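Hi team, as promised in this morning's meeting, here are the two structures we talked about. I've kept the exact order from the run log so nobody has to guess. The first one is mostly here for context; it's the second one we should focus on when we meet again. Sequence first, then the predicted structure tokens.
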Amino acid sequence: MKTQILTALKFFLAMTILTGIIYPLLMTGVAQIAFPSQANGSLILKDGKIIGSELIGQKFDSTIYFWSRPSAISYNPIPSGASNFGPTSKALKKQVDDRRIAFATSNSIVDNGTIPPEMIFASASGLDPHISPKAALMQVDRIVKARQFDTEKQQQILNVITKLSEGPQFSFFGDERINVLDLNLELDRLNKK
């Protein structure tokens, strides 16, 4: 009996060291060498200061920026999650209707049935950093007007949307998307030209 307990404790200690210390250190080292940006959070710097991550959505609600997908958690990465409203929830219906009206009104959209779903529904994590290129294109006229851009700058914005659009992951997971933070950084660069 004592030898079985001693054997079990030795095995437990060995597995703790192997899976709790050696393996995590090995994977951290491999990640730092092979994928240093991703291993450190895919951080985005502006003027040497961290302004966000490519992986976490941020709130943009000014008329001079592309708007992000709504978040049920106010873009707070700590409690990451959704609203948990069901499809028959009156609160969810009100939120969606309010978002649809606000987006359509702000972007001068006549047929609010054409608004992409990501602009009216929050994501499951509440932190999705992407919108579809269609959602970005619907916001161009508002941004051009708010920034008082001419037609040349408008065309540059359209070129940026095309340039930053990413296809489905591995060519078949998901839809075409564009990172809102990257898009807005490019928009600020255009504004300085």
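And here is the second protein, the one for discussion:
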Amino acid sequence: MVNYRGELIPGDSNFFNHTNRGFRFGDALFEEIRVIHGLPVFWEAHYFRLMAAMRILRMEIPMEFTMEFLQEQLLKTVAANGMDKKPALLRITVFREGGTEVNSVSAQVSYVIDAVELPGPFYTMGSAPYEVELFKDHTINADMLSNLSTCHTLLPTLASIYAVENGYSDCLLINVNKQVVGTIYGNLFLVKDNMIKTPPLQDGCTNSVLRKRLIEIVEAMASMELMEESISPFELQKADELFMVNIRQGIVPITRYRKKEYQQKTAVAVLGKLNVSARLLN
């Protein structure tokens, strides 16, 4: 079941047509939220990120879009899918209604919420190899729009095809200035000695909720120093560790890039603190 504008309908329903602006122009954005035993994890941060993104895209935010209303819709969707007592990942996609011309922008904003079951309530770290390669065919703009989670995902799609065709788990994405901004699936963190570095927002990385949470966790670690600085491709093979983070998987250690193999010590330590943080904030 999916939640379309507050109405629960079967997931295979044809509730969109060719005039949908999300499909036609990519005029849509989304937010993914973990829900554990009926509680949205980091919900306040997700809500304010969604509202900020809608403002940047000049969407007229409906009066009903309060934090309480959207949380109610999330939990309504979870319950309709029989996941109210199971860990779930929900995605709320927000889009402008109608209009077959790029300039025919309706003021009406709609949403759809879908849910998938997660394998467990806590973030875990898999043991499978996770090899990456630099994707150089296309670059990300170093601007505010790149910080958002929009439905305009052609570049990551092409990178994912490249990864599959060449036997990689993921690809590192670069911006127009040839700086590494993240991976196909999440934000990138680089560890060297007692320093953890992640690309700054002005480089075009996604301004995700988990990126913010990881930054807060690292800043509270007396043994580590956090730096938001550009990452050159030349730094990758000098790093002790690389790991990727996203809401769906949590922390994914990168095990290999070209001839370099990486440790996982810091990623394991941060993972434990992330799970504690997720429990404390619910």
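Starting points for discussion:
The radius of gyration is 19 Å.
DSSP finds six helices and 16 strands in the chain.
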